[in-house]
């Protein structure tokens, strides 16, 4: 069972991101403020749940949350500022969009770069410990997956509808054959070894 809150009395927002390790597409972050009495028997880290369950939970979270927000930082911005800073930027933008100002941020992971005075706690594997972070992980993951499936219609050869832009064998094989799209992160190492491009 996940924990409902970190503090006894502060208005908390859980924050998480999705897509950090991908070769293509945006990094997406979400921020969620849940009611103090919120409980859920299934809600967990999005990586631990099947796709249909995540999609169902997304609708429930959006309905039950006090407020929530999702933010995208695209591949071009990732290439400009690097993926770590892009992840912080996505979380900052999501927090800024919340209709209520949180008094404490619960950040999934061990690092965060704040851009305002809101106190924060970094919690390693927090999406498996606190409801609000788990809820943020669900929103970030489902919104990003939905977007990558839309891109896959334009570029079916990369199989983004199944790999979501992650560096799978099929994705990298498609890069070898077709090259990079405008949605690939040019600052990332797209292929393990450049020599793989040639048959020696």
TrEMBL record:
- The answer to whether the entry has keyword Transmembrane helix is no
Coarse class of the protein's main subcellular location: cytoplasm
Please name the InterPro entries in this protein's record.
Answer: RNase_HII, RNase_HII/HIII, RNase_HII/HIII_dom, RNaseH-like_sf, RNaseH_sf
Cofactor field:
Mn(2+); Mg(2+)
Q: What are its E.C. numbers?
A: 3.1.26.4
Its UniProt entry gives the catalysed reaction(s) as:
Endonucleolytic cleavage to 5'-phosphomonoester
**Where, per UniProt, does this protein localize?**
Cytoplasm
Q: Which residues does the record give as a divalent metal cation binding sites?
A: 16-17, 108
Root EC class: hydrolase
Q: How is the cofactor bound?
A: Manganese or magnesium. Binds 1 divalent metal ion per monomer in the absence of substrate. May bind a second metal ion after substrate binding.
Alphabetized UniProt keyword annotations = Cytoplasm, Endonuclease, Hydrolase, Manganese, Metal-binding, Nuclease
- What is the role of the protein in this entry? Endonuclease that specifically degrades the RNA of RNA-DNA hybrids.
The family database entries (HAMAP family) matched by this protein are listed as: RNase_HII_B
| Name listed for the protein in its UniProt record | Ribonuclease HII
**Source organism:** Fulvivirga kasyanovii
Q: What is the lineage of its organism?
A: Bacteria, Pseudomonadati, Bacteroidota, Cytophagia, Cytophagales
């Amino acid at each position: 069972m996940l924990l409902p809150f970190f503090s006894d009395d502060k208005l908390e927002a859980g924050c998480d991101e999705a897509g950090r390790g991908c070769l293509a597409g945006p990094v997406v972050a979400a921020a969620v403020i849940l009611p103090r009495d919120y409980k859920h028997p299934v809600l967990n880290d999005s990586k631990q749940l099947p796709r249909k369950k995540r999609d169902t939970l997304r609708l429930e979270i959006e309905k039950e949350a006090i407020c929530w927000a999702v933010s995208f930082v695209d591949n071009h911005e990732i290439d400009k500022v690097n993926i770590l800073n892009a992840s912080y930027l996505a979380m900052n933008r999501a927090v800024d969009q919340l209709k209520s100002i949180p008094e404490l941020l619960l950040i999934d992971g061990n690092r965060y770069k704040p851009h305002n005075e809101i106190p924060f706690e970094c919690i390693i594997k927090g999406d498996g410990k606190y409801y609000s972070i788990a809820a943020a992980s669900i929103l970030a993951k489902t919104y990003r997956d939905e977007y990558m499936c839309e891109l896959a219609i334009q570029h079916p050869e990369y199989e983004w509808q199944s790999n979501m832009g992650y560096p799978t064998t099929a994705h990298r094989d498609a890069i070898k054959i077709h090259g990079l799209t405008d949605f690939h992160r040019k600052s990332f190492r797209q292929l393990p070894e450049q020599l793989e491009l040639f048959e020696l």
